[in-house]
Amino acid sequence: MEKLIITVACTGAMTTKENTPYLPTQPEEIAEEVRMAYECGATVAHVHVRTVDDKATMALDRFEETVGLIRERVPDIIINMTSSGGLGFGDEERILPHTVLKPDMGTFDAGSMNFYKGVFLNSPIFLEKLGKAYIENGIKPEVEVFDAGMVWNAKRLLKDGFLQAPIHFQCCMHVHGGMEGTPRNLVHLVDSFPEGSTWSAFGCGPTADVIMAMAMTMGGHIRVGMEDNVYLSKGVLAEHNYQFVEKVVKLADIFKRPVANVDEARQILSLPPKKK
Ligand code: ZN
Questions:
Q1: Does residue 24 sit within a domain?
Q2: 131 by DSSP, 3-state: which?
């Protein structure tokens, strides 16, 4: 089986300090959490940013500061920036941080859906603009699928030239409004991917461990962090994101699945050598 890529998603857009007081939201805090997760085996940092009062934002200056600090502290980690940042941001403000900062990867949410109490809009026109911007700036999309129809969207965007093969998918399970985080649903998603695709998965909240184990044994990659789940075990909040990474590494050892280093992760994801 392919070596395992571990993505750490430290912050997200929806998790709040009320959910967990340990959530890193400020640039220094996020960079330090990423550094610690990297030391434990994470090779991809999925980055969201927050305002000074902890609200979700797509503000360029917050990305500049946060990503700048991560790059200073952990120069070789693969940076994967969100292109949603939460709900309700405009098309242009969602794309701008990517064209300026040119991260290694950027998320590409392959369809619209209900999202908890809101609506997560990713119109066909937005997806074409985002796909084009990623291609022009050498950014590898991480195609996030929350529901099976989004895989089909991605296949059509691939055929129309707005995505390029091989696609890297992120199976985002158990987000309210999307697909329930069950083993059968994950198998169905993975069975629908175009041949040659790579994929990773996570399950929100109570499904985190089941989806982690499924991805581990099916040859997928794994994302963990407070964006998706704040509990390390029942009733026990994680104090740091690296604790989730440690859990994955332990499981990988049990299943004899070696963890990829950054160079190996780049190769698996068909990323070019590190950007200077
Ligand atoms: Zn995210």
A1: yes
A2: helix
83 CA distance to ligand 1 centroid (A)? 8
Q: Give me ligand 1 centre to Cα 44, in Å.
A: 12
Task: Kindly write down the DSSP assignment for every residue of 182-205, as one continuous string.
Answer: -HHHHHHHHHHSPTT-EEEEEE-G
Q: Does residue 83 lie within any of the structural domains?
A: yes
What's the chain's length in residues?
276
The number of domains in the chain is 1
Which tens digit of pLDDT belongs to each residue from 46-77?
A: 999 999 999 999 999 999 999 999 999 999 99
Residue 273 is assigned to a structural domain of this protein? no
pLDDT of residue 24: 98
Q: Is the pTM of this model over 0.85?
A: yes
C-alpha of residue 146 to centroid of ligand 1, in Å: 12
What is the reported pLDDT for 1? 85
The answer as to whether 274 is a domain residue is no
Handedness of CA 48, 134, 112, 180 (dihedral sign): negative
What's the pLDDT score for residue 2?
A: 92
Gap from CA of 10 to ligand 1 centroid (Å): 9
CATH number, domain containing residue 196: 3.20.20.70
Do residues 269 and 198 touch, judged by C-beta distance below 8 A? yes
Q: Which domain holds residue 137?
A: 6-268
**Secondary structure class of 74 (helix, strand, coil):** coil
Q: Which residues contact 210 (CB under 8 A, 6 or more apart)?
A: 181, 182, 183, 203
Q: Over the stretch 255-276, which tens digit does the pLDDT of each residue have?
A: 999 999 999 999 999 998 875 5
